[in-house]
Amino acid sequence: MTMLLLALLGATQPAPLIRTQDVPAPTVAPGMAPQVGLSGSRARANLASYVTSSDYPADAIRARQEGTTWFKLTIGPDGRITDCLIEKSSGSASLDAATCRIMRSRARFTPALDSARKPTSDTMSARISWRLPLSRPIPDRVTTAFTLAADGSTTDCRMEVTLNGNPERRLSPDCTHARPSGPYFEAIKQEAKGVATQVTIEILLIRDAAAPWPVLDQRGRRVVSREMARLQVAPGGQVVGCAVLDHRPLAAPMMRACSVVGSRVGQYTAAGASEMRMVIYTALADTAPR
């Protein structure tokens, strides 16, 4: 069920995915901090913000080419890139060439300082993941619900996907494939404490930055886990930052909003937006449905 939810959220608008990250990965959410070079140089903006969906080479799209380009930049004392070396190819000459062309022409750095506090040259390694678009738009809401019996069995599984305000309900006679599994499901059963209940798991994407956060704590249900995150969107449409504002997990691994976003950077909104939000929560009904 978790993979199905991720697949639904990963369904995209017709625009290629382009993702840029540090090597090694930063300790904060992808895109939340500027890249830091080996000797202290610092990008003036997140590297992902220098790349837009329109940069995907047309010949690579026609040839259905995608992959990850690993590269090393040499940054001069003036903060400009003096060299770009492909350390590991994406498998596409066009994607590799586009990577260095974009970095050379757009990326700017605050230079590193030597022991005398004077600007000096530096190197930095990073990667760009180029991903071709899928064919479907992203849902605004994915809701999965099922009945959890006192003995831990499940029935009445259903999923509702809302896209552009239009809900579509899908019934699943086999709850094994529709409900969560492993430690996540065991943690839900532990929260139920052997009492029959209705379980609801929802992923909500709020595209309107001015819209209020949803009220999760409602009469008749108990929210047992939730995560609320703010997404930063660059002018080109890429999600370049994800900040967790509230995280109340179950006693087991579960979906994380920033992980979901990180797998589909660049495909979550039209160009020009500056902020979106994502909510993931699991709730139990106070009593079993009749």
UniProtKB/TrEMBL annotation:
Q: Where in the cell is it found?
A: Cell inner membrane
In terms of PROSITE patterns, this protein maps to: TONB_CTD
- The residue range of the signal peptide is none
* Family of the protein in this entry: Belongs to the TonB family.
The organism's taxonomy opens as: Bacteria, Pseudomonadati, Pseudomonadota, Alphaproteobacteria, Sphingomonadales
Q: Name one Pfam family in it.
A: TonB_C
Protein source organism: Sphingomonas glaciei
> What InterPro entries does this protein's entry cite?
TonB-dependent_transducer (IPR051045), TonB/TolA_C (IPR006260), TonB_C (IPR037682)
Per the database record, which ranges form the TonB C-terminal domain? 41-139
Kindly give the membrane topology term recorded for this protein: Single-pass membrane protein
The entry's keywords: Cell inner membrane, Cell membrane, Membrane, Protein transport, Transmembrane, Transmembrane helix, Transport
Question: Protein name, please?
Answer: Energy transducer TonB
